[in-house]
Amino acid sequence: MRGARILSVGSAVPNLSINNHKISEIVETSDEWIVTRTGIKERRILTGVNKSVVDLAALASIRALKKISMKPKDIDLIILATSSPNDLFGSASQLQHQIGANKAAAFDLTAACSGFVLGVVTASQFIQNGSYNNILVVGADVLSKWTNWSDRSTCILFGDGAGAAIIQSCSKRQNGILGFQLNTDGQKSDQLSIAYRNNVLADAKWPTSKGEFEYIHMNGKEVYKFAVSKVPSSILDCLDSLKISVQDVNWMLLHQANERILNAVAEKLGITSDKIIANLRKYGNTSAASIPLALDEALQQSKINKNDIIVMAGFGAGLTWATVVIQWKC
Ligand code: ACO
C-alpha cells in the first residue's frame, strides 16, 4: 500500500453576498434570530443565467492547481461531490472539459454534506492501491437553486460555493490520510431531501411520466439531534481505531451547518473552542463545499502547520455521516 496526502486546496464563492437583513425583507425573520440559532450572518448566492456549479468547481480547481504549478493534464481522476449538478447524468465531465484535464476519468459523487469527505476517502483508496497518482476532489454546491425562498426554516441556512483538493500518492511514511469512518441511515432519508416528484402524463399513448424535483425539505430539529449524537461517536470510533487521542487533535473541521452543532460536538469530545475551524458566519451551509472552503481559508490564514492532525467530519442528507482523520504533510 502506498501513501496519499492532500497537496493543495483551492476554493471559490460567488460575488453576491446576501446578509440576514436582506433575508428579513423576504421572509419574517431577523438577524438576531438567525445568528443566535445558527451563527450565520451572510451567504453567497450564484447569479447569472449561464453560471453554474461547474463554474465554481472549475475556479476552485484551477486555484488549487496553480498553488502547486500542476498542469490539468496531470490529473488522473476527478471526483465531483455535488447535490446540485447541471446534468443528472453527471457534471464531472463538464468540469473535466472546462479545466482541460483531458486525461482524467471523471465522475460525480452524491452524498450531500458528507460528499467531500467521501470523495477524499474514495480518492485515497484509488491512490493507496496504486491505481492513480493525482486525484482532484471537488465539493461544490449551488443549493440556492433548490431553496424555497418563502420557507424561513431553510432559506436562512444555505449558500453556494466550491472547494477543491488535489490528493497525490506518496511514500507510506508520508501518508496523510490516516483513517476513516462512514455511515448511512437510509430509514431517515425523508428528514432532509430534495425529493423527486413523478407526474404521470395523462394524455400519453402509454403510461409515461415527466417528473420534477421539489425544494429542499428539512426537519431541522431531527437533523440537529442526529448531528449532535452521531458525529461525536463517529469521530471517536475513527480516532480509537487509529490509536489517536482527542488531545492529539489539532483541528476539528466539521461540515459548516450550524455553529451550535460545531460547539456541541466539540464539547461532547472535550475539544476546546480554539481548535474549531469555522467560517459559516460568512458563507452559511455550502453543503459539499463547506469543508474544503473552510480548509482553504484556514490554510490561507496559516493556522495549519506541518504534521497537524485534522479531524474532518461531514453529515447531512441521506442521512449520511462520515469522518476522515488526516495529518497535514505539506
Ligand atoms: N426566523 C424566525 N423564526 C423562525 C425561523 C426564522 N428563520 N425559522 C423558524 N422559526 C420559528 C419556527 O416557526 C418556530 O416557531 P414556533 O415555536 O412558533 O412554532 C420557532 O422559530 C422555533 O423553530 P425550530 O425549527 O424549533 O428552531 P430550531 O431552534 O430547531 O432552529 C434550525 C432551526 C436552525 C434549522 C435548527 O433546527 C438546525 O440548525 N438544524 C440542523 C440543520 C442542519 O444542520 N442541517 C445540516 C445538514 S444540511 C444538508 O445536508 C444539505
From TrEMBL:
HAMAP family (UniProt xref): FabH
Domain comment in the entry: The last Arg residue of the ACP-binding site is essential for the weak association between ACP/AcpP and FabH.
GO terms under cellular component: cytoplasm
Keywords per UniProt: Acyltransferase, Cytoplasm, Fatty acid biosynthesis, Fatty acid metabolism, Lipid biosynthesis, Lipid metabolism, Multifunctional enzyme, Plastid, Transferase
Superkingdom of origin: Eukaryota
Assembly: Homodimer.
Main location, first listed in the record: cytoplasm
GO annotation terms (biological process): fatty acid biosynthetic process
Pathway(s) of this molecule: Lipid metabolism; fatty acid biosynthesis
Function of the protein: Catalyzes the condensation reaction of fatty acid synthesis by the addition to an acyl acceptor of two carbons from malonyl-ACP. Catalyzes the first condensation reaction which initiates fatty acid synthesis and may therefore play a role in governing the total rate of fatty acid production. Possesses both acetoacetyl-ACP synthase and acetyl transacylase activities. Its substrate specificity determines the biosynthesis of branched-chain and/or straight-chain of fatty acids.
Location of the Beta-ketoacyl-[acyl-carrier-protein] synthase III N-terminal domain: 107-186
Native species: Rhodymenia pseudopalmata
Region (ACP-binding): 256-260
Record-annotated Beta-ketoacyl-[acyl-carrier-protein] synthase III C-terminal domain positions: 240-328
Reaction(s) the record says it catalyses: malonyl-[ACP] + acetyl-CoA + H(+) = 3-oxobutanoyl-[ACP] + CO2 + CoA
Protein name: Beta-ketoacyl-[acyl-carrier-protein] synthase III
UniProt gene name: fabH
